[in-house]
Amino acid sequence: MRIFKLLAIIVLLISSAACQKIETLPAIPRIEYRSFEIFDTTDILGNEAKGGRLKFYFEDGDGNMGLAEPEGILSDTSNLFFTLYRKQNGEMVLAPPNDPLKPSSYRIPYMFRLGQNKILRGTISVTFFYLFYSPSDTIRYDFHIKDRADNISNSESTGEIIVSVNNTY
After folding, report:
1. pLDDT bucket at 2, cuts 50 / 70 / 90
2. Rounded CA gap, 21 and 82, in Å?
3. How far is CA 163 from CA 3, 34, 47, 52, 134, in A?
4. 158 occurs within a structural domain
5. CB 144 within 8 A of CB 31
6. Structural domain boundaries, residue 132
7. Given the DSSP bridges, would you call strands 156-157 and 167-168 parallel, antiparallel or unpaired?
């Protein structure tokens, strides 16, 4: 009889530990800027260039981050968007659309999570190549992401980045 009581208590403890509340987060994605690193690199033709690597953290409560491969002309092809600012006369000013340092929009690949908890969290790293820059180029990026339900995240900003100087900003 004691064995049955002890077994019942053990099963009850294991059952209650397995029934933890599912964590929830808002469906709108959230991002946090982590760092931007400038480094020396070469392009695919072997030309010397500068590289930049942006790292940021993201959370998405309903787990619908990333885009599937485009299926047609009208498909969304971007879900990571950048705005470039250049330092001019001591002030950060919006760069023109034809600026050689202006990045295009990027595509975060399709992500999903199995199970009841759909929350996605992680760090995304994006690499830029700077083929045409001058020693005085100081820039900043504002960026945001969009999930498959067209929810737009908060906007984050890098600090000031001197493109010609290898450093982590």
Report:
1. low
2. 37
3. 71, 18, 17, 8, 8
4. yes
5. yes
6. 25-168
7. unpaired
- Residue 114, both tokens: 């199995």
Domains in the chain: how many in total? 1
In a domain, 3, yes or no: no
Q: Are residues 159 and 54 in contact, defined by beta-carbon separation less than 8 angstroms?
A: no
DSSP secondary structure, 61-91, as one string:
TT---SBPPP-STTS----EEEEEEEEETTE
CATH of the domain at 145: 2.60.40
What is the pTM assigned to this prediction?
0.81
**Amino acid at residue number 127:** T
Q: What is the pLDDT of residue 157?
A: 98
| Cβ within 8 Å of residue 124, ≥6 positions away | 55, 56, 57, 58, 80, 108
List the Cα angle 139/56/124 in 5-degree steps. 115
pLDDT digits (tens, 9 = 90+) for 54-94: 999 999 999 999 988 766 666 668 999 999 999 999 999 99
Domain-embedded: residue 10: no
Assigned domain for 164 exists: yes
Picking from 150, 145, 153, the residue whose alpha carbon sits closest to that of residue 106 is 145
Q: Give helix then strand counts, H and E, for the chain.
A: 1, 9
